């Protein structure tokens, strides 16, 4: 199972340049969270700070009763073992085949026998769908396969927290869709806490339980997926609609004159798009952290955009959810399973 991460008043700067300030959020245990933001807002810096590779100027990162920025080197080293990281480019060793790349953390950090290492490595290779490719070098496989190999390596120490730094970077839309499905399936299977940094709007709209948005050196919002996808906050609405009209400019933020000019023209920021059904595990199960479609909106009296929660087969999952959950046999360690919206 995953662990909760509590971030309180976190500030990071390089010299006189503040990257972001006073960031506070809670990554719930076992849930999938996504962090969005325009280029240059410090999303990757946030990941590196979470894992202790960078030290913040102020603030706290609580993992259980441990405050990461204030740990001794020994305790920091031990706490990092809770993390697995998928880097943007996979960060594989080019001279090692996939098997040895994936086995590297086990050989470096444990005293397991080679037979035990092989059992674990092949198990993770199977989880990410790379059986048969373990003898290949990183240069002999596609970008999508390198991402999956990097993910297998991130999994070998059975981490309770997995960080994904732009996993869709360099992938075409089809491979991104496959990777998104793999992420959802892994979360359902291992129950770890996932945080994904991404620019991909489809990933943000369909995969996570929670979404956050960094902009202008601060965390604008962080909360349940439905809260952000129904938000009227201008920067959130602009980013999720991928429109030019709004606070975000070519170099992150627009100046006052640009915003005033837009206001005089009276540009319509556009209607919020329908909220899609959340992506389901391939086996049709329901992840432990997954909520019924529309439940946050109903609880807070928010009307969803027209067409929300309708899948590509025309099924309305607000209506379908209770019938399908009731019709399925519960699976071990999860809620009752069901057919999948968003598939």
Automatic annotation (TrEMBL):
SUPFAM superfamilies, per the entry: P-loop containing nucleoside triphosphate hydrolases
Region (Disordered) residue spans: 283-313, 324-343
Molecular-function annotations in GO: ATP binding
InterPro entries: AAA+_ATPase, ABC_transporter-like_ATP-bd, ABC_transporter-like_CS, P-loop_NTPase
Entries under Pfam families matching the protein: ABC_tran
SMART domains for the chain: AAA
UniProt keywords, alphabetically: ATP-binding, Nucleotide-binding, Transport
Residue span, ABC transporter domain: 5-241
Name of the protein described by the UniProt record: ABC transporter ATP-binding protein
Lineage of source species: Bacteria, Bacillati, Actinomycetota, Actinomycetes, Streptosporangiales
